[in-house]
Amino acid sequence: MCLVLFLCHFDCKSTIFFVDMQVFYYFCSQINIKMSIFEYIEQHSSAENDVLKQITRSTHLEVINPRMLSGHVQGRVLSMLSQMIRPKRILELGTFTGYSALCLAEGLTEDGKLITIEHNDEMECAIRRNLSLSPLGEKIELVIGDAKEELRRLGDKAQGERQEKFDLVFVDADKKEYCDYLDMVLPLMREGGWILADNTLWDGHIIDPAYDKDKQTVALRAFNDKVAQDERLEKVILPLRDGLTIIRVKQLVN
């Protein structure tokens, strides 16, 4: 049995495709399964607090590409990892509307601090507004600027004065710069510190030959290979949303 699908193009010409009905039903069933599993995970995970719900809503109403938001499940993962690590100092590269920064800040020690660097200056007002909604916002320092330039400043400052190392770093900025971020972040970290790198599966493009010339995909492949080959690092990639790599710094990097 076949199903006939008609697709109308802009030139008003129709193209006919014949698809086996069993294949079609299987495809639909897989979509439904994936959707229901994700909904099941959300329903059986800790809820967002009211502030995070408000940020989620305002981001979807006001910002282009709201899917860049970490979201409910990943936000809970970031929070839980941070609470397990109990960092005193956190560095975040790329915060979008501030959602992930607040999630990570949930695990800070009482005297802890999070520095978040965001390149897009058009987001500054929204980020500061969102951070101000939570008492945790007082522990977060927002820096608007290029991540690599700010990392250089942090490196220079660390050499010029006695400065505490970072316990946890979350990387979610320009995908093309992930390899450089890693090289620049490692000297700023304490031995046994943790790095979380987002989007490392890149919607599956990471293994799709169709994206061999895509600059972001190529850069993320290089990053994944670099991390995998570095014996100073323990690492695992979680298939969470777009891929989340968890890295532990085994050896102190000078």
Structural description of this entry:
This protein has a seven-stranded mixed beta sheet with strand order 5-4-3-6-7-9-8, sandwiched between helices. A two-stranded antiparallel sheet has the order 1-2. The chain has helices at residues 21-43, 50-62, 71-85, 99-105, 124-132, 147-160, 178-185, 215-229, and strands at 2-8, 14-20, 89-93, 113-118, 140-144, 166-171, 189-198, 233-238, 244-249. With 254 residues, it is of the alpha/beta class. Helices cover 41% and strands 23% of the residues. It is built from eight helices and nine strands.
How many strand segments? 9
Helix/strand class:
alpha/beta
Percent strand:
15-25%
* Percent of residues in helices: 40-55%
What average pLDDT do the residues reach? 88
Q: Count of helices?
A: 8
Which helices and strands, and how do they pair?
Blueprint: E1 2-8, E2 14-20, H1 21-43, H2 50-62, H3 71-85, E3 89-93, H4 99-105, E4 113-118, H5 124-132, E5 140-144, H6 147-160, E6 166-171, H7 178-185, E7 189-198, H8 215-229, E8 233-238, E9 244-249
Parallel strand pairs: 3-4, 3-6, 4-5, 6-7
Antiparallel strand pairs: 1-2, 7-9, 8-9
Summarize the structure.
This protein is α/β, with parallel strands linked by helices. The chain is 41% helix and 23% strand. The protein has 8 helices and 9 strands.
